[in-house]
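Aldose 1-epimerase: C-alpha cells wanted.
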Amino acid sequence: MQKRSFGQTKEGREVTEYTLVNAQGMTLSVIDLGATIVSITMKGSDGNVYDVVLGYDTPVDYQNNTCYFGAVIGRNANRIDHAHIHLDGKDYSLEANDNENNLHSGSHGFHAVIWDVVQESAQSITFSYVSRDGEQDFPGNMTAKVTYTLDDNGEVAIAYEAVCDQTTVANFTNHAYFNLDGHDSGVIEGQKLELHASYYTPVIDSKAIPTGELAKVAGTPFDFREMKEIGRDIEADDTQLRYAGGYDHNYALDKADGTMQLAARARGAKSGICMDVYTDCVGIQLYTGNFITPQTGKGGVQYGKRHAFCLETQYFPNAVNEKNFKSPVLKAGDTYRSVTKYCFGLEK
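Answer:
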C-alpha cells in the first residue's frame, strides 16, 4: 500500500490517495473523497503503460465534477422518477437534480463525502461511511462499506456492504469511466463491447426514466450480445438513442440469479487491453459519455463527448418505484451486499 496526500477540498479537508500494486506492476489508486477510483494503470501489448480511467488531479476538481468520475454512488445509483419514494407508508421527497428526477442520490451523495479507512493490506483497502438519518433525504442511519481489491491476475474487485436502522434504499455502484486505449486517447467509438443481456429497459423520454417494460435488444442498435464496436450503431435512427444522445440505458442481465456472472467484455482498439466484468447485480447501465462537456482532466488532458464508457452494475433505474423491477429496498437490520469485478488483461 502506497499513500500520499492528494491535496485539500474546498473546505480545507485533507484528501489521501491510496495505491495498490500487483505483481505485474498494475496499479489501482483510490482517494477517500467519494471512495473514488482515480487511476488504473497497466501495460498494454506494446509495453507502454496506460491509465484506463478518466479523472482529475485535485480534490477540488472532483468536487466541481458533474460526471462522477470514478466515484462510489449511493445510497441510490441512477435515477428516481420525480425525486420521490414511498417507504413503509411514508413519502419522501429527494433532491431533484436531474430533469425533475433524483440522480445518483443528489449533490450530497456518497461521491461527495470523505470516507474513513477501516482496513488496509497489500492487496485491499476498505472504506466506511456513516450516512445519518435524513442525509440525502433518505430515512435511517446507514453504515456503508466498500472494499477495493487488486489481485495478481489483474482483477479489480469492488465489494459493497450496508446496514440501516430504518427501511431505506440501498443500490450502490461505481461510476468509473473507462477508456481502454488510455484516458488521453479520445473517443471510444472504435473500442469493442459485448453485453450478456437479451433485454434492456427503454425510457419514456429524454428524462431517462424507464417505461417499466423489458424490450428485446434483437434487431435494434442495443444488441451487444456479440462483440461489436461501441460506435457501430450509436448514430442509428432510433428514438431511444436520440433521447440520450447515444447509449445511456440499463440492460437486464441474462443470468441475474444473485451469483457472480460474466456480464460484459470490452476490448481496446489499439492498446491490446481487455476487460471482463463480473457481477451479482441484476442490471448494468451502459453510458457512452454523451454528456462529457469539454474539460481538463488528469495531466492537462482535454476530455470531451464519448471519450469514455461506463458499465455501472446496479438495480434498474427507478426500481424503488417500479413494481416490475427487482426492488432495492433494504429493510431495517438487513444487510445489503454486492460485488462487481473488473478483470483486466491483454488480448491473445
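Residues 59-64 form the longest helix (6 residues). The chain has one domain: 2-346.

Cheers.
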